[in-house]
């Protein structure tokens, strides 16, 4: 039942916000310019064997120098909003202490260029690039990192707050906790397994303290971008459903319940969290103006099988055998270049399950990321992916989900973390030698779709 990509998309509600997303560490480059401090990703990518293609993000897409060209592309695409991230190490090079005005100047110019192009700036304050100086003291495993983050948020709001009407505190604290502190596949490369959970709490606390800092500066339109996807049990056996429930708890409810319900999803987590958290939960659950969901795919989870040949993997990442759950391949769907299954209906399922679980506690939702990796300029698979997901999103809205906007990940092919440049997610191709931008077929398709 594939809908031909040529049939027009259904109409979205008036005022629906269309956008594209990027992040500083994945596109900016210019890592040594204008007083920027080092980030955990600078250090991680410089370690042998960390990045699959041996690359790093010292140049990335050179957006730092080419942002005017990129803003022109966004304007031409016809979206109303651009989600980018502010690099904490540009603004506070050591993570704590002195603010670097030259670092803020860049975002000042970017915001002005966007407004001039009629595009709303949507900054994310943190997209995983922790200042290395803070990491060396323990990073997000430490409580005071959350306080330093709020001080940095205040400095950004002081500079950009007169022009920004929509703010994102954190991007995907779940992925940083799991991949960065739990499994060591992302910076800072710690493999603490369940001892990573204090990072989750401190990230959530950092979010809450940053919300306070932004509100104190009069900011409105505040949200967060959390990664979510349905968890499908591998079978209805008790062992598989229990494993799937634990995975869902760690990847979905652990990061949504404190924000939306004001408590952690399971009392059993208390032993893994850093001490008494009751007061923090009041900070963490301060009302948001909207809730951001990054959706990529569902995950099928079963109980670990000690007899299984070889390690199970998560997005191509080998998982340690002692974990109490095992991801399994989802069969019967097309797959992206990353080998992720393409399952648009799981986006409908996710949005309706959020509505059911959180009810009136869930503010309006923005899809802050959705997209796919495919090679080539003539990317008909990306068109089919976006077409399918937009129809699935529309079905969720018709069924009552209050979704107010959708952002494609990503504007540009960029540094895809541990994958290096091997997984292109862009609507716009970036040549790795010349850094020239070329609009893909999906760019032209989306531009046409948004004009209807
Ligand atoms: C986002 O994270 C990031 O915010 C962004 O920076 C990044 O470039 C983009 O997505 C693309 O990766 O083994 O099939 O179950 C990624 C979110 C969602 C990726 C869960 C791995 C599990 C894959 N993650 N997914 S699977």
Automatic annotation (TrEMBL):
EC numbers on record:
3.2.1.21
Per the record, the domain of life is Bacteria
| UniProt xrefs under PANTHER family | GLYCOSYL HYDROLASE, LP05116P
Q: What class of enzyme is it?
A: hydrolase
The source organism is Streptomyces albospinus
Full protein name = Beta-glucosidase
Coiled-coil region: none
Q: Which NCBIfam families match?
A: BGL
Question: Entry's Pfam families?
Answer: Glyco_hydro_1 (PF00232)
- What keywords sit in the KW lines? Carbohydrate metabolism, Cellulose degradation, Glycosidase, Hydrolase, Polysaccharide degradation
User: Catalyzes what?
Assistant: Hydrolysis of terminal, non-reducing beta-D-glucosyl residues with release of beta-D-glucose
UniProt lists the family membership as follows: Belongs to the glycosyl hydrolase 1 family.
């Amino acid at each position: 039942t594939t809908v031909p990509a040529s049939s027009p998309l259904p109409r979205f509600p008036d005022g629906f916000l269309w956008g594209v997303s990027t992040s500083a560490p994945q596109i900016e480059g210019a890592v040594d310019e204008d007083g920027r401090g080092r980030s955990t990703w600078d250090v991680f990518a410089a370690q042998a064997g960390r990045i699959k293609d041996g690359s790093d993000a010292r140049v990335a897409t050179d957006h730092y120098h080419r942002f005017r060209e990129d803003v022109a592309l966004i304007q031409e695409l016809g979206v109303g909003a651009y989600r980018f991230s502010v690099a904490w190490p540009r603004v506070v090079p050591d993570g704590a202490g002195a603010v670097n005005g030259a670092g803020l100047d860049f975002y000042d110019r970017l915001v002005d260029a966007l407004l001039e192009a009629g595009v709303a700036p949507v900054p994310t304050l943190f997209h995983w690039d922790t200042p290395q100086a803070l990491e060396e003291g323990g990073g997000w495993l430490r409580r005071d990192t959350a306080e330093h983050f709020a001080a940095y948020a205040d400095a950004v709001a002081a500079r950009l707050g007169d022009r920004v009407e929509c703010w994102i505190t954190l991007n995907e604290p779940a992925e940083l906790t799991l991949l960065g502190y739990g499994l060591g596949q992302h910076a800072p490369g710690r493999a603490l397994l369940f001892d990573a959970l204090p990072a989750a709490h401190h990230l959530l606390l950092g979010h809450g303290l940053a919300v306070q800092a932004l509100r104190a500066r009069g900011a409105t339109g505040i949200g967060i971008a959390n990664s979510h996807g349905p968890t499908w049990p591998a079978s209805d056996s008790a062992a598989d459903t229990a494993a799937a429930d634990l995975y869902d708890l760690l990847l979905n409810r652990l990061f949504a319940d404190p924000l939306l319900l004001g408590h952690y999803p399971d009392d059993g987590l208390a032993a893994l969290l850093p001490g008494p958290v009751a007061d923090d939960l009041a900070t963490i659950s301060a009302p948001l103006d909207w809730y951001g969901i990054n959706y990529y795919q569902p995950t099928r989870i079963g109980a670990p099988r000690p007899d299984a040949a070889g390690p199970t993997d998560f997005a191509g990442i080998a998982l340690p055998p002692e974990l109490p759950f095992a991801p399994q391949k989802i069969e019967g769907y097309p797959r992206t270049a990353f080998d992720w299954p393409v399952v648009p209906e799981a986006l409908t399922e996710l949005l309706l399950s959020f509505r059911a679980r959180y009810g009136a506690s869930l503010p309006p939702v923005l899809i802050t990321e959705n997209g796919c990796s495919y090679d080539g300029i003539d990317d008909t698979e990306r068109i089919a992916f976006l077409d399918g997901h937009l129809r699935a999103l529309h079905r969720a809205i018709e069924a009552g989900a209050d979704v107010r906007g959708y952002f494609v990940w990503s504007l540009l092919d960029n540094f895809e973390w541990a994958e290096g440049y091997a997984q292109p997610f862009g609507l716009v191709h970036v040549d790795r030698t010349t850094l020239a931008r070329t609009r893909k077929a999906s760019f032209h398709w989306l531009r046409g779709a948004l004009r209807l």
